[in-house]
Amino acid sequence: MRIAFVCPEDPEDPAALSGLPYAAKRQLSRFAEVVPVLPAYAQGRGARPTRPAWRRRLSALRGRLSRPEARSALEVREGSLRAAEAWSRELDQRLARDRFDLLFTCAVTTPLYRLGTAIPVVHFSDAVARPLFSSYPVFTFQSEGSKDAWHELESEGIRRLSAGIWPSGLLAESAVRDYGLPPERAHVLPLGANFLPLPGTIRQPAAPPTRENLQISIVASDPVRKRLELAVLAVELLRARGWKAVLTHVGPRHAISERSPATRWAGALGLRAEADHAAFRRVMAETHIQLLPSLAENFGIAPAEAAHFGKPSIVSRACGIAEFIESSQCGVVLPTAGTASEYVTAIEEVVDTPGRYQALSAASLRAASRLFHWDRWGERTWEILTGVVTG
Fold first, then answer.
1. Using CA atoms, how far apart are residues 38 and 5, in angstroms rounded to an integer?
2. How does pLDDT run across 298-341, given as a tens digit for each residue?
3. With 0-12 CB in 10 A as exposed, 13-18 as middle and 19+ as buried, what is 352?
4. At what angle do helices 274-286 and 301-308 cross, to 10 degrees?
């Protein structure tokens, strides 16, 4: 099978778009010939022009959607749709010059807006427009012109799909309910982990914490949406109750965690440098429980990474990964509006109940292998793709 691969960022960059294009292309390449098309990196990484036409159009589209205050809502909407139409036209021209069995789009449906190709299209993303606009602050406050354009782009793009792959039921349900995708074309596959332990180093459940040593971690690039302050307060409450607890914060430096003696900052660790991967492994080696109390989270890859180290997570219901944590019993799910005191109660229950922590740790390792692994994602995605192509 020959697959045309389209995404707005370089799939050879392990850090682009949270690593999704990189992981997807690597997995598809296990089974088929994968050809990045449209962006200039498809012609060779060393020959990329500074501002190719596709990037100018994408930049124009992003600018119209993110800086609408200088334009009327109608101007924002129409300008954005024109930019998307130009991208579709360029993609059609590229596909017509070659032979492909399938088009695989990653992250955005924008290039499908006015696409005329007859080859089947499979889309993979960790987002759908309506859930983004209803829960993510950066999108909630967009202008009405921006929102209307995004919904139009998403609707037209999803309408052209032979199959769509999302990491949570919440997103797949939105594609069906809000954008008309036939239910049989919507697939839910959890994401794999990007930060991993060294091979062969994690073979058995983790040793449980004690009142003398309770290490908690949180990966929070957005301190408000991921409720970093709640995590800090939960650890401070634990210390007030006699626990020698410490919270390690992975993400951009922030005053919320810096002003508390109960926290330490591990850095804003990225996916490109091996030194950052090593630093993350050190954090997880010490961690007992990971928190993700987000107000909104399309998936939430950090608990998937913790599972590979045998470390259970306590997450909010708003996290897309919550459905998998519940089904695999590798952690605890609390209400989206859960308080710091409720997280303290959940932590104490996990630690104080005999055998509870070890059971969650063992379940985490099983979930890491069966659910939160890019190889599992690749195998199931390949089944979907072959089903689409063979009819």
1. 9
2. 999 999 999 999 999 999 999 999 999 999 999 999 999 999 99
3. exposed
4. 70
Q: Which residues is 186 bridged to in the sheet?
A: 164
Contact 238, 343 (CB under 8 A): no
Round to whole Å and give the CA distance between 25 and 144: 35
Percent composition of the chain: helix, strand, coil (DSSP 3-state, to 5)? 50, 15, 35
Pairing of strands 313-316, 245-250: unpaired
DSSP tag of 161: -
Distance from C-alpha of 362 to C-alpha of 368, rounded to nearest angstrom = 10
Sign of CA dihedral 97, 102, 107, 113: positive
Q: Which ranges of the chain have pLDDT less than 50?
A: 41, 43-57, 68
Q: What is the pTM of this model?
A: 0.91
pLDDT tens digit sequence for 241-276: 999 999 999 999 999 989 999 999 999 999 999 999
Which long-range contacts (C-beta less than 8 Å, at least 24 apart) are formed by 38-44? 38/6, 38/87, 38/90, 38/91, 38/94, 38/111, 39/8, 39/10, 41/10, 41/11, 41/12
Where do the domains of the chain lie, and which CATH numbers do they carry? 2-191+374-390 (3.40.50.2000), 214-370 (3.40.50.2000)
3-class state of residue 211 by DSSP: coil
Map tokens 């890859």 to a residue: 301
Residues forming a β-bridge with 106? 124
